[in-house]
Amino acid sequence: MRRVDSAPNLVLATLWADALSAAGIEARVFSRYLSSIAGEIPPSEAEPTVWVLDDADLERARALLLELRRPLRGPGWNCRECGEHHGPQFAQCWKCGAGRG
Description:
Distance between the termini: 39 Å
Number of strands: 5
Number of helices: 2
Shape: elongated
Radius of gyration: 18 Å
CATH architecture of the largest domain: 2-Layer Sandwich
Strand content: 15-25%
């Protein structure tokens, strides 16, 4: 088991672990509740951490998290079903549910 990274909060750590799991990488969040004792221990030690269970997945996991941190850029798109305009980060229409196509 290897530590991938620490997150500034539990929500982000959980999202990262879920994204890794969705990519086929078994991941867990540790130090979930240490933020309550920040000050008693260094703040950086109180952050939740994301770990991969298989050491061989470490580099792939780090690359995926780096990709997740980069904002998507590019042109927006219009839904082919209802014409609603969306930013590049959306893969599905919020209005009618159609996929980006």
